[in-house]
Amino acid sequence: MEASAGLVAGSHNRNELVVIRRDGDPGPKPPPREQNGQVCQICGDDVGLAPGGEPFVACNECAFPVCRDCYEYERREGTQNCPQCRTRYKRLKGCQRVTGDEEEDGVDDLDNEFNWNGHDSRSVADSMLYGRGGDPNGAPQPFQLNPNVPLLTNGQMVDDIPPEQHALVPSFMGGGGKRIHPLPYADPSLPVQPRSMDPSKDLAAYGYGSVAWKERVENWKQRQERMHQTRNDGGGDDGDDADLPLMDESRQPLSRKIPLPSSQINPYRMIIIIRLVVLGFFFHYRVMHPVNDAFALWLISVICEIWFAMSWILDQFPKWFPIERETYLDRLSLRFDKEGQPSQLAPIDFFVSTVDPLKEPPLVTANTVLSILSVDYPVDKVSCYVSDDGAAMLTFEALSETSEFAKKWAPFCKRYNIEPRAPEWYFQQKIDYLKDKVAANFVRERRAMKREYEEFKVRINALVAKAQKVPEEGWTMQDGTPWPGNNVRDHPGMIQVFLGQSGGLDCEGNELPRLVYVSREKRPGYNHHKKAGAMNALVRVSAVLSNAPYLLNLDCDHYINNIPSKI
C-alpha cells in the first residue's frame, strides 16, 4: 500500500481494515449497513445513538458520520480532528476529557469528563481480569453450565452443581495472567467452563483476589495497628522495629546513594590505569638513567616528581569510587519539625562578608541578606551576621534600610512561595509568574511589592550617591556623634543588632530572623589577616549571640533560594 493512500483503521466488531482517504480523494467506501440510516465512514459500523436518543454526531461543523468508538479513539490516540473538515473534536457529554480540551463550567458531567467511574474499555478489561466483569453495557451474562464437562473435586466426580454458585478457575495464558478469578458467568472464550470445586460451600465467600495477596493485606493491617499503638503510647525503641511499614515517611532515611552506571565510570577507570602504567614506565626510565654530571639536581627533580605522583594517586581514590547522594528534605521536616511541638531543627548562622561598599554595591549585599531573612525555616533558628571589614557608614545605613524592607518582603515570599527570594533576581525573571499561583490577590500584592522594592532601590542609590563625597570632618551619626569607623585602620569594634527576638516584627506581627552588623576592631601595627580575621570575629560574635552548630559563609554577591539551598 502506498504511504500516501491515507490512514489505515480497523473495525471494533469486524475483521477488516479500512483506509481513510485524504481530502479530495473520495476512494472506495465500505458498504452501508441499514440499521439507523447512518454508518461510520471509518469502520463501517452503525453510528448509533447519543444518550438522549438522537443520532450520534461527532462533529458539530460538518456532521461527518463517525461512530462513538472511532470518535473516542481519534480523540484519545489520533489527531483529535474531524477527518472531513479538520475541525478539532469537542468533548461530548458522556465522553472522557483529553489533553487540549477547553475549560468547561458545567458540573453535571464531571464523572464522565474526568473518568472517575472508569467507564472505558480498559476498565472493563481490568474488571473482567479480576472477576468483576460483565458485558460492555454493564449487564452480566447468565451463568451457563456445561454438563458435558465433569468436575473433579477431592477425587470425586460432581455433577449436581447449583447454577448460582461461583467457580474458581485459573486464567489461561491467552487471558494474560496466572491469577485465580471467580467468574459468576460462563465465558465462551474459555475451553472449559467454570464450575464449582466444592458444591457444599458458596465460593463467593472466598472474595476476589488471591490467597497470597490476602495474607499480605492482613500482615499490612497488623503492622499498621502495631505502629498506631506505638505512636499512641509514646514509647518504644525509637522506631527500630523492623515490622514498622516503610510508608512512614518520618522514619525513612534522609538520603540514599545513587549508583553510577558502569558505562560512565569504567572509561574513566581505564584512563586511570593507563596513566598509572605510563607513570611506572616514566619513573623506571628516570631511575635507570641518572644524570651523573648534575646528580644533586637530578635527585631533587626525581623526589619532586615522586611527590606529585603520590599526590595524584591519592586524588584518584575518591574518583575511583564516586558517591552521589539524593536527599529528601521533606522527611527532615517531618522528623524534626512536627506541628504542635517545638522544632528540633538545628540552628544555622549565616556569614556575609563585605569590605568596600563602593566596589561591592550595597544593593547586591542587601539582596543577599533579604534572601536569608525570608527562608522557610524557624525564625529562632536562623541568624545573619554581616561583616563590614571596611567600617563604612554606607554599609551600616544600607543594612538599616534592608531590615525595614525585610519586614514586608519576608512575609510576601513565605505566603506565595516565591523563588528566588532575592528581589532583584525575582523581578528580573522573564517567566510566567502566574504559574501555580491560584490566589486571586497575588497579582495585586506582587505589583505593590514591586513598587516597594523600586522605592527601596531609590533609597539605597541615594545613600550611595551621598557617600561619594566624604566630609572633611568625617561622617556623623544621627545623634551627632562621630562615626567610629572614620579611620578604617584604627577604630573600635562595632556590633549592632537590627532584627531579632527582642523586636523588629514584620508587617504581619511575626518575628524575623536575627540580623547583626559586625565591624571588628582594627589597630595600627597589628596584622588583621584580611578575610580570615573577619571570619574569626564573626565566629566569636555568633558564639555569644546564637552559637549555632552549623555555619554557612557567603560572599556579598551570593543569594539563596530557600531551605533546600542551605541544607
UniProtKB/TrEMBL annotation:
<comment type="pathway">
    <text>Glycan metabolism; plant cellulose biosynthesis.</text>
</comment>
<keyword id="KW-1133">Transmembrane helix</keyword>
<protein>
    <recommendedName>
        <fullName>Cellulose synthase</fullName>
        <ecNumber>2.4.1.12</ecNumber>
    </recommendedName>
</protein>
<keyword id="KW-0961">Cell wall biogenesis/degradation</keyword>
<dbReference type="GO" id="GO:0016760">
    <property type="term" value="F:cellulose synthase (UDP-forming) activity"/>
</dbReference>
<feature type="transmembrane region" description="Helical">
    <location>
        <begin position="265"/>
        <end position="283"/>
    </location>
</feature>
<dbReference type="Pfam" id="PF14569">
    <property type="entry name" value="zf-UDP"/>
</dbReference>
<dbReference type="Pfam" id="PF03552">
    <property type="entry name" value="Cellulose_synt"/>
</dbReference>
<keyword id="KW-0862">Zinc</keyword>
<feature type="compositionally biased region" description="Basic and acidic residues">
    <location>
        <begin position="220"/>
        <end position="231"/>
    </location>
</feature>
<dbReference type="InterPro" id="IPR027934">
    <property type="entry name" value="CES_Znf_RING"/>
</dbReference>
<keyword id="KW-0135">Cellulose biosynthesis</keyword>
<dbReference type="InterPro" id="IPR013083">
    <property type="entry name" value="Znf_RING/FYVE/PHD"/>
</dbReference>
<feature type="binding site">
    <location>
        <position position="360"/>
    </location>
    <ligand>
        <name>UDP-alpha-D-glucose</name>
    </ligand>
</feature>
<feature type="binding site">
    <location>
        <position position="555"/>
    </location>
    <ligand>
        <name>Mn(2+)</name>
    </ligand>
</feature>
<feature type="region of interest" description="Disordered">
    <location>
        <begin position="220"/>
        <end position="247"/>
    </location>
</feature>
<keyword id="KW-0175">Coiled coil</keyword>
<keyword id="KW-0808">Transferase</keyword>
<comment type="similarity">
    <text>Belongs to the glycosyltransferase 2 family. Plant cellulose synthase subfamily.</text>
</comment>
<feature type="transmembrane region" description="Helical">
    <location>
        <begin position="295"/>
        <end position="314"/>
    </location>
</feature>
<keyword id="KW-0812">Transmembrane</keyword>
<keyword id="KW-0464">Manganese</keyword>
<dbReference type="InterPro" id="IPR001841">
    <property type="entry name" value="Znf_RING"/>
</dbReference>
<dbReference type="InterPro" id="IPR005150">
    <property type="entry name" value="Cellulose_synth"/>
</dbReference>
<keyword id="KW-0472">Membrane</keyword>
<feature type="compositionally biased region" description="Basic and acidic residues">
    <location>
        <begin position="13"/>
        <end position="26"/>
    </location>
</feature>
<keyword id="KW-0863">Zinc-finger</keyword>
<keyword id="KW-1003">Cell membrane</keyword>
<feature type="binding site">
    <location>
        <position position="359"/>
    </location>
    <ligand>
        <name>UDP-alpha-D-glucose</name>
    </ligand>
</feature>
<feature type="binding site">
    <location>
        <position position="353"/>
    </location>
    <ligand>
        <name>UDP-alpha-D-glucose</name>
    </ligand>
</feature>
<feature type="binding site">
    <location>
        <position position="530"/>
    </location>
    <ligand>
        <name>UDP-alpha-D-glucose</name>
    </ligand>
</feature>
<dbReference type="GO" id="GO:0005886">
    <property type="term" value="C:plasma membrane"/>
</dbReference>
<feature type="binding site">
    <location>
        <position position="389"/>
    </location>
    <ligand>
        <name>UDP-alpha-D-glucose</name>
    </ligand>
</feature>
<dbReference type="GO" id="GO:0030244">
    <property type="term" value="P:cellulose biosynthetic process"/>
</dbReference>
<keyword id="KW-0479">Metal-binding</keyword>
<dbReference type="GO" id="GO:0071555">
    <property type="term" value="P:cell wall organization"/>
</dbReference>
<feature type="binding site">
    <location>
        <position position="531"/>
    </location>
    <ligand>
        <name>Mn(2+)</name>
    </ligand>
</feature>
<dbReference type="GO" id="GO:0008270">
    <property type="term" value="F:zinc ion binding"/>
</dbReference>
<keyword id="KW-0328">Glycosyltransferase</keyword>
<feature type="region of interest" description="Disordered">
    <location>
        <begin position="1"/>
        <end position="37"/>
    </location>
</feature>
